[in-house]
């Protein structure tokens, strides 16, 4: 029973932080018509982008996990408070007003959408993967918590690392689980295999809904159908290498988030750019999304290919060469990540862990 309460507490705190950061981001960017799905998606992106920027330097400086947890926890508390203070009562009322604007038909589709997402959440929570990757993610979190360090121990053996593994160290997603396990005293395996998969599925489906709104001119029924179609597509056409398989069976992994969240976020931002020529906000979100992607997995070094494939046709359509520099800035996080990884692989950069 106590474990169930810990799971519910962790889920609640995650949602509070994600929604707060998303609402604060919408307010600062002056986005109209705030909504819960967009707040969740933006908060998810901003959280992991900021997390990566803070945890990486502290990892290389060999800061203790407990110290990092205090610093990051204080920063999150400040941001959550700002999300309540800055927007004002009027904008908060706008956020809650959308529920009263649903027609009976839209309400039916919203219920079906909620049931679809609930089914996926239950499926990923009940499914237990015991692969080597699963051992790495849980082991990294557990060794970091029990040694009060940031990824400085071998997750398979528990032995101290002499050098940080270049393949994993630049992607700090497991350290998020270590942070939560540290402050809530929730077991690493529960945080990694139950809490985060549920949240990852919720964030991914919220993003699919936003993408559906972009594709179908803000029509909620069609957006809900789009999410249901993606669900059936992932469920019925799964193979070992399709994104749906990773979403349903390995949603605790960074690679699954890269395929099922980051890639779709790139498409969402580029579609926003295509539909609205007067705004540059998607460029900023794309930049944050690329930082967020590096948090999830080293495979983010290939994300610039997708970004260019989606953004260059938009720039060609606009006949705008001047915005190429914005595209280059968006790719900067991935380029820095790639250069650091290659330097470490060629022993030009020594990542000492002791």
TrEMBL record:
Q: Where are the transmembrane segments?
A: 6-29, 41-61, 67-86, 107-127, 194-211, 223-244, 256-275, 281-312, 324-344
Q: Please provide the record's keywords in A-Z order.
A: Membrane, Transmembrane, Transmembrane helix
- List the InterPro entries hit by this protein, alphabetically: DUF6077
What Pfam families does the record tag this protein with? DUF6077
Query: What's the protein name?
Result: Uncharacterized protein
Native species: Candidatus Blautia gallistercoris
